[in-house]
Inverse folding.
């Protein structure tokens, strides 16, 4: 397998890099641009998003007919990483979670009518979206078979009741995908539904405070008290909820890795610049062996994460499901992001602990990386299961563990 980027993808990578440098990093550099939730307010984002559209750097995952770039996943890996040199680069070019994963799943499994109604406005950037799966205990979390939110069919409609929480981006989102139970069947008991924020029968109970910083729309608790969804807004078919989650969450986990790698590189960039000019006890920090070891170790781990991510992206492009490869990348890159931010803080001393750089922002965000889209321990269990079942075939290079689920 050759991970050399094609000339077209390399040109897009360089174009993304230049765009972020010119238009996004200046926004991030001025504290005035940050909202109370430590994000850039949407009215300021609109300006830079319009520039991204004009530059042809918009929605890399989405169909061209709706204004996206419709790129293969290996191209996402290169572009998302460059976009994430800024905290808000992925938002600027419309490839940030949860919209990113929702656009991809709607592209893959939505009907034409569903794409026109639900996908196009997200690609356009006119609305934000959310994916409502996780529930308070004893409901579903990493184990979706525990989902308790119910959807009862009445004629050609479903009535949804239950509770969800830690739903990223829910505050201010207009388009939602909610997963609910339609039967007690272990594999075919869940179904995914599309609904709009203005429909009655549900509400946001609270925006849950977190270690932060927060993504746009926060992390919310939702209550469903009789939301009615028509048959036409069932995503895939009744009973396909687990299948849909598998199709959505694999690539979504990998795109987290792409963005986290960009953040990790940014931490190292800030640390390197500081140690190059900072002296202590007559010696430049960059010349100290202990500092070089710290930087070298993180650089190595970042590169390993990039290769794991690109390998999984390549396998997905070949039609494989890449479940092992995505889990490996997810665990490694999450750990590396936290390590990169920690080292960058340590090497800068008090400056690293302050808000004078974005490293402390990344450090707080990094702690969630080992939890979101499956805790690291769950992914390790997935790897152990594959190893137990496949034996020596666990180490194969190609997409041999079955083709991706397809509609």
């Amino acid at each position: 397998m050759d991970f050399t980027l094609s000339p077209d993808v390399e040109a897009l990578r360089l174009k993304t890099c230049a765009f972020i440098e010119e238009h996004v990093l200046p926004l991030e550099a001025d504290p005035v641009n940050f909202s109370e939730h430590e994000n850039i307010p949407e009215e300021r984002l609109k300006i830079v998003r319009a520039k991204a559209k004009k530059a042809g750097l918009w929605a890399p995952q989405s169909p061209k007919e709706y204004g996206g770039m419709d790129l293969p996943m290996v191209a996402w890996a290169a572009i998302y990483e460059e976009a994430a040199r800024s905290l808000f680069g992925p938002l600027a070019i419309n490839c940030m979670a949860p919209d990113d994963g929702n656009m991809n799943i709607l592209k893959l499994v939505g009907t034409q009518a569903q794409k026109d109604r639900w996908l196009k406005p997200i690609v356009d950037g006119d609305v934000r979206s959310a994916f409502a799966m996780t529930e308070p205990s004893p409901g579903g979390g990493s184990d979706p078979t525990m989902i308790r939110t119910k959807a009862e069919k009445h004629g050609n409609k479903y009535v949804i009741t239950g509770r969800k929480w830690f739903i990223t981006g829910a505050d201010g989102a207009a388009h939602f995908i909610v997963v609910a139970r339609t039967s007690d069947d272990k594999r075919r008991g869940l179904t995914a539904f599309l609904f709009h924020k203005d429909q009655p029968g549900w509400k946001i109970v609270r925006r849950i405070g977190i270690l932060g910083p927060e993504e746009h729309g926060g992390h919310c608790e939702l209550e469903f008290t009789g939301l009615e969804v028509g048959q036409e807004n069932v995503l895939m078919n009744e009973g396909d909820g687990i299948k849909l989650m598998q199709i959505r969450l694999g690539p979504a986990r990998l795109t987290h890795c792409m963005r986290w790698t960009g953040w990790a590189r940014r931490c190292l960039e800030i640390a390197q610049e500081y140690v190059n000019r900072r002296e202590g006890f007559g010696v430049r920090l960059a010349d100290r062996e202990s500092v070089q070891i710290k930087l070298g170790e993180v650089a190595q781990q970042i590169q390993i994460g990039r290769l794991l991510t690109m390998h999984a992206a390549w396998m997905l492009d070949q039609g494989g499901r890449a479940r092992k490869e995505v889990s490996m990348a997810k665990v490694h890159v999450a750990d590396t992001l936290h390590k990169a931010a920690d080292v960058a803080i340590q090497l800068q001393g008090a400056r690293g602990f302050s808000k004078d750089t974005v490293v402390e922002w990344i450090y707080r965000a990094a702690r969630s990386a080992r939890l979101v889209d499956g805790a690291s321990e769950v992914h390790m269990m997935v790897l152990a299961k594959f190893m137990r079942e496949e034996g020596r075939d666990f180490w194969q290079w190609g997409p041999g563990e079955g083709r991706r689920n397809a509609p």
